[in-house]
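Model: Ready when you are.
Researcher: Fold this.
Model:
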Amino acid sequence: MTGKGQMRRCCSRCCQHASCLPFSLVLCLLQPRLPGLQNKMKINDWSAIQSLFDELNKRLDRTRKVADNVGVPRVYVRMLVELEDFLNDTLANRDLKKKMSPTNAKALNTMRQRLKKHNTSDEFGDLVTKFRENPQDDEEEELESSSSSESEAENDAEGKFEDFEKRPAGASKKKDKLLSMDSAEITYEMVAKKLRDIATSRGRKGTDKQEQVEMLQFLANVAKGVPQKLEVLLQLVGSLFDLSPGISNYMKVGLWKRCMLVMLEIMDTLTANQHIVLDDTAEPSEDRTAEPVAGEDGMIRVWGNLVAFVERLDDEMFKSLQVIDPHTHEYMARLRDEPVFLALAQ
């Protein structure tokens, strides 16, 4: 019988080839941030657009570190073209530019320079030109649509167990007041209080786990400062693990990928903020009412331990490989998920 170590060594050899990184995984890394970028474009928030643009590029670079031959998804090129057109329209609107805050205007100018350099580079210049010449490529659109559908199907499959059941008609819950507030009105203390409430209610009977996940996703977007955002994301990973059906069964693939996306976002945030470190001896977020301050060494310490999360993801992948029939396409598709996990573990 093949041992656990032997199986992983086999998978690692397999994952050295670019073909083992499926196109759907590249889309999985990029697509969750595209709607957020489009929403920020609607409200003309160039500071947020700049942050999301940088994050998308980091995610694309991360996949290329694993497999050099991974292509650029057409949905990403479409985003570059739409963002360039929107930027040009904004620059041409003098009245709108006059109403911008100094911070927003500075971010707009930064994006103008950065996007021009990005879209005319050797790597993306030809892709942008070809897209403008042929915005509708049925063959490529069909490929990305099918890849996206696979990911959606996996998420739909998660709805088969208890935590994803839809509420019956008429059983509507009162919407949390925080969700209806403008992000500018939400304070650090409000986010911290909601984090404490979620932490204390985890594991209690009758707690809506899916609702907690949705609230944490919202809090990640309105968190005040990078340390608090990291605290929210770390708690979000834990809550996503809570959605797993139990020890006796493996985590659904779609849910596993969602955990991976949050973990990659945590890693990107830490990489961009070298003065922040995770430390499991630091004061837990639920015990703190103010933003953490830097220590004598100039480092800000946020409570957390990524090693435990990585080990859990590793265990869940191995459990799925034990359960899935090795003679099926599903098994081969699961093996191809490992390159992204290896990129995270590195």
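Researcher: Now this one.
Model:
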Amino acid sequence: SSGINAEYGETGRVLRDRNTIPIKYPLKEVVLVDADPATLSDAKSLESYIVSEMNVKKLTVSSDKQKYDVKLTAKPNHMILGKRLKKDFKAVSAAIVKLTDVELSEMKEAGHREILGHDIGYDELHVSYEVKSESGSYAAASMHNVLVLLDCTLDQEMFDEGLAREVINRIQKLRKKAKLVPTDKISIFHKIDSTKKDGSEDLARSVRNYQDLIETGVKSPFSGEPAQDNVIISEEVEVKGCKFLLTLCGDVKKSSSGPVVQWPGGRPAGEYFTVVYNGSSREVLLQSNGHRLTAMRLENEVKAMFGLFGRTVSLSLDDSPIKCSTRDLDFLAGSTVTVTA
């Protein structure tokens, strides 16, 4: 199933690229359309993986292609057909563009079709899907005969969540630049000039509405208050063309060899375990804001921590895989979980 999940993720990335929507930005829905009930049942059993891979809120499966008003459209491959048909190319090209969804479906099944006296192969066309559904702005692609419809309507809430995940990414990069380790206790401060006309107003709204998401992602307090005196690193960063100041603060003491960062407590407050990916490690609390951690939530947190959205992630403890269906992770307390992607 991991190979199939990766293919869904790759198809999602292709559709996002066509609509210039980064994987960090959640989308409302992906619809999988197929006439085979077994295929749809298999897809539904992989719902948690597909939703995570494609970073969507909802998976819908359907056998009703007409409901979404999906139609095949075609254009000729100019390089192949132009060279082969020569003077007849213009007339055949006009006929190809007029082929209906039914005619193209039949041509796909047969592999070819006679058009104005010429045998034209299905692989000599540029075929795409056109979606006219009024229930969403869908982008479409085919994967092993399964029609994948990605709702690319990016409402304000999803846009703001995407901005917040971009902020998490910039904070993690700044932590790495300051050579901090996951157990280092820090406070993070931001300074955004919301009067600027560069998207700063959107960013200010995002960090205000998604402060909890950011604090969960970076495991540190995050606020817009004036930064403390004990600054570790302060730098102007950029998200979607908006520049703002990020400052990381902690308890800093001087030694003969230079600045040494020391942290009160030294460990997270509560039971925790360590996740390791590609040489980097983070500490994860088993309980946060009164909610116990599940394997599914852990997988999403890991993707946010290490920037792995759109990738298939596997978690293991002592070479034994941790199943996505696991709800009680208390057995991980004090241990180290390995992440592969």
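Researcher: Key takeaway?
Model: The chain has a mean pLDDT of 83.
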